Amino acid sequence: MSKIKFLMVAVLICFSLFINAQEGNNTNDSSIWYSYTTEGEMISCELLEDKIVYRSPFNSDDAKNVSTLWIRKKLDKDHFVVYNKLRKPQYAILHIAQSNANVLKITTVLKGDSIESLEKDFQGNKLPAWIGLFEKDWYSEKYIKQLKNSPGLDELKRADLLTAMQWRKPLSSQIQEYLKDTQGKRQFMIYRFVNEFRNRKLVELGYNPYKRVSYNFKKQFEGDEEILNLLFEEIKF
């Protein structure tokens, strides 16, 4: 084989290896998850080795719709110190863990002005007892496609709604701790916590509660006092 032919073959092999390596890096170093806002808009969360990129809507490249959290330190396999200079405070600890192949749970567990102060509080177990109330579910691309075709709230069955509204046992102690720590000044958050719990349960039951459909629970369950009380009664402890 001539020197020229040998060099051409070598260059092609190197180029092929480079392309394969780049493709491998893209696959291994990034994963994208999807969720919904309370208004039903789909948003995305891209996990990379050194940062977490949120987009709202999910496919936007507009700077005003993109928020980046830089990963500054990994405390253990599930807890990360992140930084965003535009937020106050600028540092936070995120808990990130997969509950199964299709669901990723992300929770902001602490906020602070420095990595050192956050580490100290984290190691001292100074996490609020109610922090789980702020946990958010993110879904894989495969599962989000399934949710797009799932029935919405307009097709909700009575038995499934009853199941989804059984929030008192799992949430009541956390909510009471939250109200105590906030001196009752954020009472409105109770309804948000209950609503998120209900929506999470409905997703597990095969519905898409974020689907933009027309529905009227008062009309759907007219005369059903048990359901209407669960939906519209004032939440008290």
Summarize the structure in words:
The protein has 8 helices and 8 strands, in the order αβββββββαβαααααα. It is an alpha+beta fold and 237 residues long. It has an 8-stranded antiparallel sheet with strand order 1-2-3-4-5-6-7-8. A hairpin with a 2-residue loop joins β6 and β7. The longest helix has 26 residues. The termini are far apart. The N terminus is likely disordered.
Keyword list:
237 residues; 8 helices
Main sheet specs: 8 strands, antiparallel
Mean pLDDT: 88
Structural class: alpha+beta
Straight-line N-to-C gap: 86 Å
Spatial strand order of the main sheet:
1-2-3-4-5-6-7-8
Count of DSSP-assigned helices: 8
Order of helices and strands: HEEEEEEEHEHHHHHH
Outline:
With 237 residues, the protein is α+β, with helices and mostly antiparallel strands. Helices cover 39% and strands 23% of the residues.
Topology (SSEs and partners):
Blueprint: H1 3-28, E1 31-36, E2 42-47, E3 51-55, E4 66-74, E5 79-83, E6 91-100, E7 103-112, H2 115-123, E8 136-139, H3 141-148, H4 158-164, H5 168-181, H6 189-204, H7 217-220, H8 225-232
Helix pairs in contact: 4-6
